[in-house]
Structure formats: structure tokens, C-alpha cells
Design a protein that fits this description.
The complex is a heterodimer of chains A (304) and B (325). With 304 residues, chain A is mostly helical. Chain A has helices at 2-28, 36-57, 72-103, 106-128, 155-177, 179-189, 191-196, 201-226, 233-248, 253-270, 282-293, and strands at residues 143-147, 150-153. The chains are: A mainly alpha (304), B mainly alpha (325).
Chain lengths: 304, 325
């Protein structure tokens, strides 16, 4: 039980990071972006590449930090990958979504996002191969926190959770303390009024993709660090991330954070009752339950 | 020669079966504006249920009710409809993307359930023990396959005619009215949520029929047949053919299925040995580009939706234009 809870919190932090970007895009651009989870894969593979590049440039950095399997090069790669993935998200918006948006039809955007997801996922598969990869071949043993009830935690898991919380904290400070944060919230509340007040909608959309892509990259890397990296990572996480946004209420950033943790914990605890083969279906059950009880989610507002 | 004919019969049968599913999707997306992200779930429900109702008993498995074939197929369609009813009633009142997410979730959950529930659906090995109707009487082979193709084409035609009449009926006008402006439709005393639910269920029942025929054709269905890629293929068929146009939907089905099998054949024939593993990836990328490319450069599809203007309206517009002159 306690082990499932701990694993759930870790997975939850990854889902939260992914859901923050998704919920912002869904709120601002009004479409369910099925390609968002592919940004996690893009980020994870991006870090794999930069990790190799940095290790080649300065081999001294390719050493594990403390008892983690995380190396200095990978830590550096996290920052670089977040930037690269953020810019990729902006580029995808330029190439596809902005044009489809101009042609009209919110649901055409959903179609387009499915197409983009297919293209991204399979291009990653072509480049990096279909087999799973790891950042580090070193075996890091889990630390036994307590023996009864049994609780095993890997140092990498603790690092991922802390780093995810730090990123969320930074985002919170930016949103609640800076002019940019106010501008972003103003646009989310009322785009027309915000534009009248001199906020550029185009710039805000770019910033949302940057933030969403960056956080997605971090989520993908943490997932790769605690599990493994493979091209279908995005496909496996797309439904849990959607579940997190729906639980939190579409458009609510804090809701997405809470939703991510709830979905992560619920999916892991559900394994106590369900055979593990059914775990991919659990997010769907959560979505159904939310739609049945409270369709607007925890913090969502009614917007038909 | 006989080989070519056999292959053409085989190809046309699959394409025609998929065309039925595309017609169902066209009612939902093309005529009502409902986004179904889990076509394969309703298709699969039809296939599995048909085989369970019509199959012979297997050890350790539900089903094998050995019902007469038409009843089994109807049962498959019914199960697909019930699934659509559950999903629809939960999501159709909400903003559009909830339906997209929920239907996508249904497809994931359905595939997951079929893969794991061995007692219900045979698990990963799939569902066996179905005897194709009249197979023994005709002795199988080309004669049987040709007859099956004719039956599928008759059903395709029936669905086509049914949908053409439906969209020309007052109900069809209502669907388009809701798609274009829900508030206006509501102001006329119509209930958009109920109409949308009816359309969603009808479309899904048609997809269930397509799935039932697919299961019958192969006398076998497994989780490999209900992967999300089928949803994309069926969408690509509709988008290429032209959403809102039934003739386009059928043409799109044959076109995309032709392109899919041809590209698969070409890749397996000409691609070097070491990249054979990746032919699936290449095909998926191609279908992704087809979807995105059509949306960007020809969103109306190859065959545009013919907007029907009632006679009275047309003359009225002309008169108005005449007045202005």
C-alpha cells in the first residue's frame, strides 16, 4: 500500500508537469492537443542526445552525482532539452497548428494534433530505434526506507520528485509575482480585454508553448530516468495526462498539478485491486468518474 | 489471372467493410460535427460481439451462443450502440473536446480489456471458433469470397442509401443546423444534446456493423485488430474523401486502403532487409502527413460537401440579389 502510494506520488509529479502545459494550451487555444505527450518523448530523447554530446566534450562531467544515476552531463542536458523542446513546440505551432487555426475549426486542430503525434512518435522511432534505452547503464539500488511495511525508493525517484516540485514552484512564483504572470492570467480570463490592455496574444501563445514544451521535456526526462525511454512513451502517457487535466479542470494550472498527483496515486493504488495488465485503462475510468460526478473538474469553470 | 481476381476480391471486401465504418464516422463528424477519437472501439465491439454471439462454444470462454448469423451481426451492432450510448450520455453535454478525449479513452480501455480478459474475449490470442455462415455449403474458395463481397457491397449500398435519405430528411437538416449554430437550433425549440446523442449512436452502430463484417470475413478477431491505427486510417479515409459527403467517404476508403496496402507492399518488396522492422513506422508517418496535409491544403477533401439549399431559399436569395442590383 505505502509502496504504491510512494510510486504514485512520483508518477504523479511527472503527470503534473505534463498536464500543466496541456491545460494551458487547451484553455488558450481551445483544443485537446493529443500531441502534447509526444513532447515528453521529444524531451527525453533530446536529453539522451545532449547527454552524449556533453560527455564527449568533457568526460569529467559524465560522473554520477552522489548516489544518483544522474550525471552532471544529464543534469545540464535537462536545461538544454527543456529549451529545445519548448522551441520545437513553438515550431510545430508555426508549421501546423497556427495554420489550421487560421482555417478555422477547433476540432480540425484535434485531428491535426493526432496527425502530428503520429509523425513525431514514428520519426523518433525511426531515428532512435524501437527498443527501449536508458540514460545510464549503472545499476542503482533502491534504498529500503522501511521493511514493514516494505518501502523501496530509488535516489533518482527522490531527485525527480524534488526537481519537479522546484519547477512547479518557479512557475507558481512567475505566475503570481511577475507582470508576465499577470498578463498570462489576463489572457486566459478574457483574451479580448487583455489585448485591449496592450498584451500581445501572439506573444502569449508562443510563451505558453515554450513553458508547456519545457515542462513536458522535464517530465519526459524524469520518466526516462526512473523508468526507461522508448518511442511509445508519449502514447502511454497521453491518456493519464488528459485524465490529470480533466480531474483538475481544463484551464486550471493548479488543478493540473493536483490532478496529476491524484491520477498518479489512483492509478498505482488501483493496482492493489486490479491485475497489472489493466493499468492502462485506469485513467479512462478516472475520466469517466469525473465526468459523472463533476464534469468541470476540481477547479474548472463552466465553459460550453 | 485467377490470383489477381482473388486478390481484387479480397482487397475490395476489406475496403468495402472499412467504407461502411467511414460512412458511420461521416454521420458523426461530417454531418453532426462530433469528434470520435475511438472509432476502433465501436468497430471492435461489433466484431467481438458478433463473434461471441455467433461462434461455437470454446472451453473456458464466454460466448459460443451459436446464434443464426443475422442475429449475431445485429447483436454486434447493438453492443456497439450501447457503448456509444454510455459514452455519449456522459460527454455530449460538455464542451467538444471531452468527447474526443473520452472516445479516445474508450478505445484504449477496450483494447486493454480485450487483451486481458481471457474469459470474455480470448485475451491476446484472440477469439476463435467462429464458423463463417454458408462456408461449408459453398465449399469456400473464390466462389464464397465473391458471394461475401457481394453481400458486403449490398450492405454498403444499404447504409449509403439510408444515410443519404437521413441527411436529406428534416432530421438531417437538424444535424447540420446543430453543427453550424447550436444556439440558433436551440432557439427553435430543438434539443441539441438529444439529437447529437442519436446521431452518435447511429454512427457507432454502423461502425459496429462494419466491425461485425470484418470479424466474419476473417472468422477471427484479436487485440491486434483493434489498435488505434485503425482509427487514424478511417479518419484519413474520411478527410481525404471529404467530410460531409457520403460518396467521398466511400471513395476515400478505397483510395486510402489502396494506398496503405500498396505502400506496405512496396516497402516489403523494395526496402532493404534491415529496415523491414520499421515499415510500420514509415506507413504511420505517411498517414500522419496525409491527415495534416489535407487539413492544411484541402480541408474540404477531394469531394466537397454539397450544401443543399432548399428550392424556396434559393429563389429568395436570387430575388434579394436582383433587388440589390
Amino acid at each position: 500500500m505505502i509502496q504504491h502510494l510512494a510510486d504514485g506520488i512520483l508518477v504523479g509529479s511527472i503527470l503534473s508537469l505534463g498536464a500543466i502545459g496541456l491545460t494551458m494550451v487547451m484553455h488558450m487555444l481551445r483544443f485537446a492537443n493529443f500531441s502534447h505527450a509526444e513532447l515528453l518523448s521529444v524531451g527525453a530523447y533530446c536529453a539522451l542526445v545532449f547527454d552524449g554530446v556533453f560527455a564527449g566534450v568533457h568526460s569529467g562531467l559524465a560522473q554520477a552525482i552522489g548516489s544518483l544515476s544522474l550525471t552532471w552531463t544529464l543534469a545540464l542536458s535537462i536545461i538544454v532539452s527543456m529549451a529545445v523542446t519548448g522551441f520545437s513546440a513553438v515550431a510545430i505551432d508555426r508549421l501546423v497548428f497556427r495554420r489550421v487555426r487560421a482555417l478555422g475549426g477547433e476540432l480540425s486542430m484535434v485531428f491535426a494534433s493526432f496527425g502530428v503525434a503520429m509523425i513525431l512518435r514514428n520519426i523518433l522511432g525511426l531515428i532512435f530505434g524501437l527498443q527501449a534505452q536508458l540514460y545510464s547503464r549503472d545499476i542503482v539500488f533502491a534504498v529500503m526506507i522501511s521493511s514493514d511495511p516494505l518501502l523501496l525508493i530509488k535516489p533518482d525517484q527522490v531527485f525527480s520528485l524534488v526537481a519537479a516540485l522546484v519547477f512547479m514552484m518557479i512557475l507558481h512564483l512567475v505566475l503570481s509575482r511577475t507582470t508576465f504572470g499577470y498578463a498570462l492570467r489576463a489572457v486566459a480570463e478574457n483574451p479580448t480585454l487583455a489585448q485591449v490592455s496592450g498584451i500581445s496574444l501572439q506573444r502569449m501563445i508562443i510563451l505558453i508553448w515554450l513553458i508547456g514544451g519545457g515542462l513536458a521535456a522535464a517530465a519526459g526526462i524524469f520518466y526516462g530516468l526512473t523508468n526507461q525511454i522508448n518511442p511509445v512513451l508519449g502514447r502511454d502517457l497521453v491518456l493519464p495526462i488528459f485524465a490529470a487535466t480533466i480531474v483538475g479542470g481544463i484551464g486550471s494550472i493548479y488543478g493540473a498539478v493536483l490532478g496529476g498527483f491524484l491520477v498518479g496515486i489512483a492509478s498505482n493504488v488501483a493496482l492493489l485491486i486490479l491485475p497489472s495488465g489493466y493499468s492502462p485503462a485506469v485513467p479512462f475510468l478516472i475520466i469517466l468518474a469525473v465526468l459523472l460526478v463533476r464534469p468541470t473538474g476540481l477547479f474548472g469553470e463552466e465553459r460550453p | 489471372m485467377i490470383g489477381v481476381i482473388s486478390y481484387l476480391v479480397f482487397f475490395s471486401t476489406v475496403a468495402a467493410i472499412l467504407a461502411i465504418a467511414v460512412l458511420g464516422l461521416n454521420l458523426q463528424w461530417g454531418n453532426t460535427g462530433l469528434f470520435n477519437g475511438g472509432v476502433v472501439a465501436f468497430f471492435g465491439a461489433g466484431a467481438y460481439a458478433t463473434l461471441i454471439f455467433g461462434g461455437t462454444p470454446q472451453e473456458g470462454q464466454l460466448g459460443g451462443f451459436a446464434l443464426p448469423y443475422p442475429l449475431a451481426l445485429l447483436g454486434g451492432m447493438f453492443v456497439a450502440g450501447v457503448m456509444a450510448w454510455i459514452v455519449g450520455i456522459l460527454t455530449l453535454r460538455l464542451r467538444h473536446d471531452y468527447l474526443a478525449i473520452a472516445t479516445f479513452g474508450v478505445a484504449v480501455a477496450f483494447e486493454n480489456l480485450m487483451r486481458n480478459a481471457e474469459a470474455l474475449a480470448g485475451g491476446a490470442q484472440g477469439l476463435r471458433g467462429f464458423e463463417r455462415p454458408l462456408f461449408d455449403a459453398l465449399g469456400g474458395g473464390l466462389a464464397y469470397n465473391s458471394l461475401f463481397l457481394i453481400c458486403v457491397l449490398v450492405l454498403l449500398l444499404a447504409v449509403y442509401v439510408f444515410l443519404e435519405r437521413l441527411i436529406r430528411s428534416p432530421f438531417g437538416r437538424l444535424l447540420r443546423a446543430i453543427r453550424e449554430d447550436e444556439t440558433a437550433a436551440r432557439s427553435l425549440g430543438k434539443n441539441p444534446a438529444r439529437i447529437r446523442l442519436t446521431s452518435f449512436i447511429t454512427g457507432s452502430v454502423i461502425m459496429g456493423m462494419s466491425g461485425g463484417l470484418y470479424g466474419t470475413f476473417y472468422a477471427f478477431i484479436s487485440p491486434q485488430d483493434v489498435l488505434p491505427i485503425l482509427t487514424f486510417q478511417i479518419w484519413a479515409m474520411l478527410i481525404v474523401g471529404g467530410a460531409g459527403n457520403n460518396r467521398g467517404a466511400v471513395a476515400g476508403a478505397f483510395l486510402i486502403w489502396g494506398a496503405w496496402t500498396a505502400s506496405g507492399w512496396a516497402l516489403s518488396r523494395f526496402a532493404p532487409q534491415e529496415v523491414q522492422l520499421y515499415t510500420g513506422s514509415v506507413q504511420f508517418i505517411l498517414i500522419g502527413f496525409v491527415i495534416v496535409g489535407m487539413l492544411l491544403w484541402r480541408p474540404q477533401g477531394l469531394f466537397e460537401e454539397k450544401l443543399v439549399v432548399s428550392q424556396q431559399g434559393r429563389t429568395a436569395t436570387k430575388e434579394l440579389q436582383g433587388d440589390r442590383r
